[in-house]
Amino acid sequence: MRAPHRTRRLALTLLAAAQLVGCGEPSRPNLLLVTFDTTRADAVNLSDPAGPTPTLAALAARGLWFERATSPVPLTLPAHASLLSGLEPLAHGARSNGVYVVDPAVETLAERLAQAGYHTAAAIGALPLAGRFGLNQGFARYDEGGFTQRSQAATTFPERDAEAVIRAALAEPLPEPWFLWVHFYDPHQPWITPTKPGESAYTAEIRATDAALGRLLGALGGEDELLVVVTADHGESLGEHGEATHGWFVHDATTRVPLVMAGPGVPDHGAVGGDARLIDVAPTILDLLGLGAIGQGESLRPLWEEGPDPPRPVYGESVTAQESLGLAPISALRVGDLRVVRSGRDRLYDLSADPQELHDVSAERPEELARTQAALTAYVEAHTGPLAAAGPRALDAETQALLSQLGYVDAGVEETGGDLYDSLDLLAVHDQLSLSPSQRRLDPALLVRVLRAHPRALSLWARGVPFLLELEHPEAAALAIEAAGLFPHDEEVQARAATVMARAGDPRAADGLTAFMASGRGAATDTRSEVLALWAQVALSLGRVEDARALVNTLAARPLLLGPELYDRALLRHSLGDVPGAAADYAQAARVLSDDAALWANFAGALAQLGRLPEAMTAVERSLALDPTQTTLWARKAALAQAMGDEAKAAESCAEHQRLGGRVAPCVQ
């Protein structure tokens, strides 16, 4: 029953394509490109309208979808740079998130379409794609505002939900012909969409994002005149290969993505076999529009017109292990069903027999290993451009702080070596440290062992040492000072070591503070807020109040601080006697760090000093509800109750204080 309809539709779409590339003034359709963040290929169902992604299934039903589409890198910025330029990361040079910028020399799809008369607009969902990283080139409008709308208890993330993105995308008229790129970040953690029975949190996010896509398409209308392309930047490992999220390995779990096309020039084909790469998407769009080629990719038209032979080489890479942990970078090449992965040593996987890539067959199949090794080396040499050597760029403090909330900005390791596959303990600990404090399930003894075993892993030391200091682990102070010797150029590591030295009376703390203030870094716009706060703590410990005040003033001048930074600033302001400023910062921080008992206790103290006794009582009760073992705080509650004339509450609080062994006034005279 499908064949006659399909034949008729094919004839119509071929006619439409002929009109696009024929003589005379071309009549080009509007173009919508939608990217789902962090969406693995098997998380969507493109053949079942009753599945979790009915909008994508409906698009696939009236167009086509690729059974094996692959991203070159499992990170947002580099994957989108490849999607929009048709270049491998080796050529466009934006190898990771947060610390790379797409060079203006890179030609993008938006630039090419703008030259052809298209109005170009974009609405993005998260900071890694902000215009400061270079993908705004070619767009007449690039909306990136409001990255604070999705939150969870422990922190606020620099992103906005799909509904906010849609509002931004449709906020201004789109003169025809137009190209609109819409980026939905929702499937990226944290997963906060309510689940249905039997549904994972990850699936719930993708279901909700698919529904948002449906609303966007409904608002745009003009189905027959609209060319729609929907894909994802990368997948999510969900524990495969020992990886909780993405960004480290380049197996199918994090590189296979959905890719759907529908509209003018796209036949009613259904599933398309063979290999589709993100670098092929922009060339395919330009091919459909009759606007030539771009980048290093190829049009996908031959896959649906002629079939998948011969197979295209599929490249993948990740520099995260190198830049975060001091291990070897990872690169890979798949030709057909064989993938060679280079990471310290080369591994070979046969996806036809082992689709999850669990068994390295390099020892059993040395000839195939040698052939694929040579192919990977040749591919890298042929596709590497001058921009690959550009490297990371310095970021302002605001950008660094925001990206750190997403787990990014770890670049800076100069010495590399070691194999991530042999360091899964390191990866597991790193993933735990990336979680909020309330979510961590990390054995301190294991952390200490992993730190000792990996003295080049800057990211691990920078996150692990503060965790141990907070726990007052007996080895924490020594490790903080050791870290300063291991990473002499990292400002945060140096400042944290100085706080330990100051408490111990070590004169090196004073020398370090003097050097820091003399360098001007205490007033620099690119000094991280954490660094300023740490040196302010050192200054207070040393009694250098004016230095502390100067550093806090630098912090106070920053318009955007996240919860932990606001809390740090509140504590510093409180210590310096700026009680109104401290109370304001506590209030803002408490909206995000609402499960931090110590924050509520300190907030209560500031409110009491300001004479705002009912609010102080509320803050004390919030703190005790989170941690009822705070013996002294029960006495403070009793004092507040007495000041408010509530003798019954004072007596109850004193009874609990004494039950816990406390002997503090007013409960004990």
What do you see in this structure?
- With 669 residues, this protein is an alpha/beta fold.
- Helix content is 45%, strand content 11%.
- It is built from 27 helices and 13 strands.
- The strands form two sheets. Strands 1, 2, 3, 4, 5, 6, 7, 8 and 9 form a nine-stranded mixed β-sheet that branches. It has a four-stranded antiparallel β-sheet with strand order 10-11-12-13.
- Strand 11 and strand 12 form a beta hairpin.
- 51% of the residues are buried.
Would you spell out the secondary-structure blueprint of this structure?
Elements (H helix, E strand, L loop, with lengths): L1 H20 L8 E7 L17 H8 L2 E7 L5 H10 L3 H4 L16 H7 L3 E5 L17 E3 L18 H8 L8 E7 L16 H20 L5 E7 L19 H4 E2 L1 E4 L7 E8 L3 H9 L11 H5 L8 E5 L1 H6 L4 E6 L2 E6 L1 E6 L15 H18 L13 H8 L19 H11 L9 H10 L4 H13 L5 H11 L4 H13 L4 H12 L9 H13 L3 H12 L6 H13 L3 H14 L4 H13 L3 H14 L4 H13 L3 H13 L10
Parallel strand pairs: 1-5, 1-6, 2-9, 3-4, 3-5
Antiparallel strand pairs: 2-7, 2-8, 6-8, 10-11, 11-12, 12-13
